[in-house]
Automatic annotation (TrEMBL):
Transmembrane segments: none annotated. This is CXXC motif containing zinc binding protein. Keywords: Metal-binding, Zinc. It comes from Coffea arabica (Arabian coffee). The lineage of its organism: Eukaryota, Viridiplantae, Streptophyta, Embryophyta, Tracheophyta. The gene is LOC113703068. Pfam families: CXXC_Zn-b_euk.
Length: 164
């Protein structure tokens, strides 16, 4: 069992507090990434989708995803661990620092290639809230009427850090 922390950063222009809509532990937010089999190294051709409301009974407890490797048939599980996520602030963004969003307890598989989908929220430094932000195109460009300034999210980056 290895715990991986999903870390993200981005360039935020006149924006702060980038996070999944409803917060990092929003039960309906979908996290998309690929899985590498810990046995044979096969990578899933497509992203898997993880969501807190997807609960699968497994062994004596439950998990959020059970994935059988197409190549070697070994089964892997991914369980989400809540309470660790923090919004990406403008200051972190300016320094190129990453913020944790979610922790994944992975057994038999390794997460990689996180995809930024839709359903994000962010606010301008003037306090204007932007909901339902779609980052699947890699960028978000808007205009903050209240602050009378352009706002932008760009240069999205993500990694999975092993928690010791
Ligand atoms: Zn395999």
């Amino acid at each position: 069992m290895v715990n991986y922390s999903l870390m993200i950063t981005a360039e935020l222009e006149n924006l702060t507090d980038l996070q999944p809509q409803g917060g990092c532990d929003d039960p309906s937010f979908n996290y998309y990434f690929k899985l590498k089999c810990g046995n044979c190294g096969e990578v899933t051709p497509k992203e898997v989708c993880l969501c807190l409301t997807d609960v699968v009974p497994h062994g004596k407890g439950s998990t959020n995803l059970v994935k059988k490797c197409k190549f070697c048939s070994r089964e892997g599980t991914v369980t989400m661990i809540t309470g660790r996520g923090r919004p990406l602030t403008q200051i972190q963004s300016q320094f190129g620092h990453f913020t944790p969003l979610m922790v994944f307890d992975c057994r038999g598989v390794e997460p990689l290639d996180f995809s930024f989908g839709s359903g994000w929220q962010v606010e301008s430094i003037e306090g204007t809230k932007f909901d339902g932000v779609d980052l699947s195109g890699g960028e978000f460009v808007e205009y903050d009427e209240k602050g009378e300034c352009p706002v932008m999210i760009s240069n999205l980056r993500a990694s999975f850090d092993v928690l010791k």
